[in-house]
Design goal:
- This protein has 228 residues and is of the alpha/beta class.
- It has one domain: Vaccinia Virus protein VP39 (Rossmann fold, 3-Layer(aba) Sandwich), CATH 3.40.50.
- Helix content is 32%, strand content 21%.
- It contains 8 helices and 9 strands.
- The chain has a 7-stranded mixed sheet. Strands 1-8 form a two-stranded antiparallel sheet.
- The longest helix has 13 residues.
- The protein binds S-adenosyl-L-homocysteine.
- S-adenosyl-L-homocysteine binds next to β1, α3 and β3.
């Protein structure tokens, strides 16, 4: 008997496919739909009209538009060309168009330009490399207000003695001041992710501590793999 071919499972969320834009799980696409959370993230970033803001993964641009209302320039880095087209369509012909610069591609591979502030609801799978890319970026930025998976956010801000205190906590807090700002439930996103989320504020220590970072990282690597 011939084998029945099973169809490869689509990674596109079915419940949103019918609404026009297909969100792709591989890119961690969960659109922040609650405007109050977007507004509160922007407020916590204490934006100035002269600021250049970096947004990672603008998606359909809900946060981008609010940023464009408040600052001089938004540089938005997006990997999905379909969403880039959506975003371009949204600003085309408006006074926002000249203020928005879109970088197409993987933010982890991109050479980041100068920016004052970073605000973003990021794809959670790149959280750790992204935090260190930002913290080692020069010249210094003022602060980053980012949405993470709740457990990752808790590890970022954990203090010595906490159960979640780990290499990520030590290394991040060496280079930055970090604050947990708010927890955000799944239903504020479309489609809702499986995990809970939280917003964290990261402020690089400027000047940085006089420590050879790669050597330090090697030390914490040894210390924390022997943790009992
Ligand atoms: N900020 C938007 C969308 C969040 S979903 C909102 O809150 O509504 C995460 C976004 O990051 C998606 O648009 C996804 O396509 C994009 N993305 C995923 N991986 C990326 C990467 N490596 N570099 C840049 N963008 C990425």
């Amino acid at each position: 008997m011939p084998k029945v071919k099973t169809e490869k499972k689509s990674r596109i969320h079915k419940d949103v496919a019918k609404q026009g834009i297909m969100f792709n799980k591989d890119f961690g696409q969960h659109i922040l739909k609650n405007p109050m959370i977007i507004t509160s993230m922007l407020n916590k970033a204490a934006l100035r009209p002269t600021d250049v803001v970096l947004e990672i993964g603008p998606g359909t641009g809900n946060m981008t538009i609010k940023l464009l209302e408040q600052v001089k320039q938004v540089i938005a880095c997006e990997i999905d060309t379909r969403l880039v087209a959506e975003l371009q369509k949204r600003v085309q012909g408006t006074h926002f168009q000249p203020k928005l610069k879109i970088m197409i591609g993987d933010v982890l591979k991109a050479e980041l330009p100068f920016f004052d502030i970073c605000v973003a609801n990021i794809p959670y799978q790149i959280s750790s490399p992204l935090v260190f890319k930002l913290l080692l970026h020069r010249p210094f930025f003022r602060c980053a207000v980012l949405m993470f998976q709740l457990e990752f956010a808790q590890r970022l801000v954990a203090k010595p003695g906490d159960k979640l205190y780990c290499r990520l906590s030590v290394n991040t807090q060496l280079l930055a001041r970090v604050d947990m700002l708010m927890k955000v439930g799944k239903n504020n996103f479309r489609p809702p992710p499986k995990v809970e989320s939280a917003v964290v504020r990261i402020e690089p220590r400027n000047p940085p501590p006089p420590i050879q970072y790669t050597e330090w990282d090697g030390l914490t690597r040894i210390t924390f793999t022997r943790k009992k």
